[in-house]
Specification:
six-stranded mixed beta sheet; binds alpha-L-arabinofuranose; 12 strands; Rossmann fold; alpha/beta
């Protein structure tokens, strides 16, 4: 083959590939969404801040592989600007669908509008955005974080039922501005505000990490003369805080009762050792459901606007029995 013919062949192949990718995922585009052609999905993950996140990433990657989806994965390292860059790059690459788990709730309208203009559907997973314009994304799959906060509050109210002495609570919040931090705080607050004995004496972000959870708990222990309860917005912060509590010569789960959220294996191990009193489950294994949704959205099928994950609550007495069955 002459050099000229080879160049022409490559150019034709590139043009075909670009057409196959589609200039966007207009609904009903069977060629790239229906199963004949492989679907390309851009996925922007929050980061690798917690055990929950590691399990979620694995679930999404495994499910994409199983579904035969070409997943372009990008880790934002807990920075919104990185997610915006990743989404713009996915738009440039003309992926079929963009899925992402927003680090924070606000500030997405511009980039989501760019995806919409490029006719690339967006699926939100795990965390929500606060955009007023609901046409900017197709659906949102994830937990109800307000409900999780309420479940944490319900446990506390029950635990101290009939008691009148003040209950001093310290709160380790998740990443500032993130949906789980906002919602877990408000859900919990709504439940305990009806009883004056509950007092949140200190509340600060631990950014969903063990290191920060430990650091902030150390500060709480220094500044607060009496702490009865720790409410941690995730397991990693609770596990970091446990180290701080033990180093301060106190017994976690007894001197300071601990409420946590997620339900990762390490937290169940700590709960089985009586160091955490209750864990509100937040399920990270969203991969298979996400891939199904992505395929439907690309095909232009109707999907529910909001799909909630089903989750439970586990107490100390259930931990040992539940531990072998934990999948993350
Ligand atoms: O968005 C889900 C939250 O993010 C999890 O509870 C936390 O562990 C993670 O970092």
């Amino acid at each position: 083959m002459s050099k000229r013919a080879a160049v022409a062949l490559v150019a034709t192949a590139m043009a075909v590939a670009l057409t196959a990718c589609g200039s966007g995922g207009g609904s009903g585009d069977k060629a790239s969404g229906g199963g004949d052609k492989q679907l390309t999905v851009g996925f922007s993950q929050v980061g690798a801040e917690s055990g929950w996140r590691t399990a979620n990433t694995k679930s999404v990657q495994d499910a994409a592989k199983k579904a035969g989806i070409n997943l372009k994965f990008s880790d934002a390292q807990q920075k919104q600007e990185n997610q915006i860059k990743a989404i713009r790059s996915f738009i440039q690459q003309k992926v079929d669908v963009i899925a992402f788990s927003p680090v924070v709730e606000s500030g997405w309208d511009t980039v989501l509008k760019e995806a919409k203009d490029a006719k690339i559907p967006v699926v939100l997973t795990d965390r929500a955005v606060d955009s007023k314009d609901e046409s900017l994304y197709a659906t949102f799959l994830g937990s109800d974080f307000v409900e999780e906060g309420k479940k944490a509050g319900d446990w506390l109210v029950k635990e101290y039922q009939g008691k009148t002495e003040p209950v001093n609570i310290v709160e380790l919040q998740g990443t500032t501005g993130s949906a789980p931090a906002n919602d877990r705080k408000s859900g919990f607050g709504d439940v305990i505000k009806g009883d004056a004995k509950f007092k949140v004496v200190a509340s600060q972000t631990g950014d969903f990490t063990r290191a920060k959870g430990k650091e902030v708990m150390q500060a709480f222990l220094k500044s607060q003369p009496k702490i009865d309860v720790l409410y941690a917005h995730n397991d990693d912060m609770a596990l970091g805080a446990i180290q701080a509590i033990e180093e301060a010569g106190k017994t976690p789960g007894k001197d300071i009762k601990i409420i946590s959220v997620d339900g990762v294996k390490d937290a169940f191990t700590a709960m089985a050792a009586s160091k955490i009193n209750v864990v509100v489950e937040c399920n990270p294994l969203l991969g298979d459901q996400l891939m199904e949704l992505i395929k439907k959205v690309k095909k232009g099928e109707t999907v529910e606007r909001r799909i909630k994950t089903v989750e439970g609550v586990f107490t100390m007495d259930q931990a040992a029995a539940a531990l072998p069955n934990r999948q993350y």
